[in-house]
Design a protein that fits this description.
Blueprint (H helix, E strand, L loop, with lengths): L7 H19 L15 H16 L3 E4 L5 E5 L8 E7 L12 H16 L7 E7 L12 H7 L17 H8 L16 E9 L4 H5 L3 E7 L1 E10 L3 E2 L11 H18 L5 E3 L3 E4 L5 E2 L2 E10 L2 H22 L2 E10 L2 E2 L2 H15 L4 E4 L5 H4 L5 E6 L15 H19 L2
Parallel strand pairs: 3-4, 3-5, 5-16, 6-15
Antiparallel strand pairs: 1-2, 2-4, 6-14, 6-16, 7-12, 7-13, 8-11, 9-12, 10-12
Helix pairs in contact: 1-3, 1-11, 2-3, 3-11, 7-8, 9-11
Bound molecules: zinc ion.
């Protein structure tokens, strides 16, 4: 049997170990009976120790970097070769599921374990990273681990504080890290050939397609805007319908246009009006002003910005027809992160081999790959999760899917690891 065709027994064994290790990591929690593991906490330290042991058992050299990521390296044929870096995060939201993040680290260890068991080395070294903080649960800033490794940690992050007023710098000292050495976590570009992240989908698409695995095309970009329609408040009894400048009626017309226009723009774009305030907000007063938010996301910035402009133009038209004034300010904008095309191609071929069909889909949620993509080609593989539920203790995957995930990741590493 070739390395790439992991036997059924071997795959089932790997899957069982993945599930057991996800369960074991889930016991390292700050809250009894629920999983909460945040950056620079005692549970973070315990998780790093446990994952470090597993990496060591798979024949890896292990270290903790200067921002608290746990890292391991399995040398290639030639010592010092550039590495395929596999990983995801080990921190969680509050009352979290046990697969979001952890699954990507634990399946990666299985891949190296298999290489180690066969005493096989590739042209590239294989490294694994368990990122220290992706979710931002403790300090409200996200991607601390991957921004440390990619060398894009903003200096002001050290001053950010948690709910108890403890700064990142102080928490690092308490953890045994030196905040003056944050920069030492940064890896040189030539040391890493590509970053590969396996993650649960956190959405319902794979389940709907009856597939275990999918290829991620891009991590969605997003824009958030504060918008308002201004009209004229007036007496609900005395102002005739033809004389009104009803801000809420205009906003509602626009919300219907947002939904229709976004649907028409294709299945990968999403737009949401999540908040609406109506002033003065009385049963017998025509609404004089409405403020609302727009959140719009998609995997390609050009298409995203074109849809956004179309929706804003429509708002302007609706406002003009109704004698209202419309305004909008973008207060948050993050570009889309495209996954590397040739890695996507390799993943498609791998998925054809392991599950007979490949499906490509964008990621609606953010991931460590966003920070890694600043310097390196990134590839992402999604694993089906039950009901698309995540950030919730009900988060669930099947052992069979975990087995397919390990096989797919192994085949991908085998393809990319040999030049
Ligand atoms: Zn995650």
């Amino acid at each position: 049997m070739s390395f790439m065709e992991m036997g059924a027994a071997c795959s089932a064994q790997a899957a069982a170990r993945v599930m057991a290790r996800c369960d074991e990591l889930a016991t390292l929690s700050a809250t009894p009976g629920a999983l909460t593991r945040v950056y620079l906490s005692p549970q973070h330290r315990q998780a790093n120790a446990l994952v470090g042991e597993w990496m060591q058992g798979a024949g890896m050299r292990v270290w903790q970097d200067s921002v608290g990521n746990i890292c391991g390296r399995y040398e290639g044929r030639r010592t010092g070769a550039s590495a395929l870096l596999l990983g995801s995060h080990l921190d969680t939201v509050r009352d979290a599921g046990r697969y979001d993040g952890m699954l990507g680290v634990i399946t990666a260890i299985e891949v190296v374990q298999h290489l180690h068991d066969q005493q096989r080395r590739l042209d590239h070294a294989i490294e694994i990273v368990g990122f220290a903080d992706e979710e931002g649960t403790r300090f409200g800033i996200t991607l601390l681990g991957s921004r440390g490794l990619s060398g894009t940690w903003p200096a002001h992050w050290l001053d950010e504080t948690d709910a108890d007023g403890i700064s990142v710098a102080q928490a690092m000292l308490d953890f045994g890290l030196d905040p003056l050495k944050v920069g030492e976590a940064a890896r040189a570009r030539h040391e890493i050939a590509a970053y590969l992240e396996l993650h649960i989908e956190q959405g319902p698409c794979l389940e709907g397609e009856n597939l275990a695995l999918g290829v991620v095309t891009a991590i969605n970009g997003a824009r958030r805007l504060n918008c308002s329609f201004k009209g004229q408040a007036g007496h609900a009894g005395t102002v005739p319908m033809g004389h009104r400048q009803d801000a809420l009626a205009g906003a509602v017309q626009w919300m219907a246009a947002i939904e229709a226009g976004t649907r028409a723009a294709g299945p990968q774009l999403v737009a949401t009006v999540g908040t609406v305030q109506c002033h003065p907000g009385a049963v017998n007063v025509i609404p004089g002003e409405v403020t609302l938010t727009l959140d719009i996301r998609g995997p390609e910035d050009v298409a995203l910005d074109a849809l956004l402009q179309q929706l804003l133009d429509q708002a302007g038209t609706i406002a003009a027809q109704r004698g209202l004034r419309f305004s909008a300010q973008t207060y948050y904008s993050i570009p889309a992160t495209p996954c590397d095309k040739s890695i996507q191609q390799s993943l498609e071929e791998v998925l054809l081999a392991v599950q007979g069909r490949s499906l490509s889909l964008p990621s609606g949620a953010g991931h460590d790959a966003i920070a890694m993509a600043d310097h390196w080609p990134v590839g992402m593989l999604f694993v089906r999760c039950k009901g698309g539920i995540s950030h919730n203790p009900a988060e669930s995957i099947s052992a069979a899917d975990a087995g397919l995930a390990v096989q797919a990741l192994m085949q991908l590493v085998n393809r990319l690891g040999c030049h």
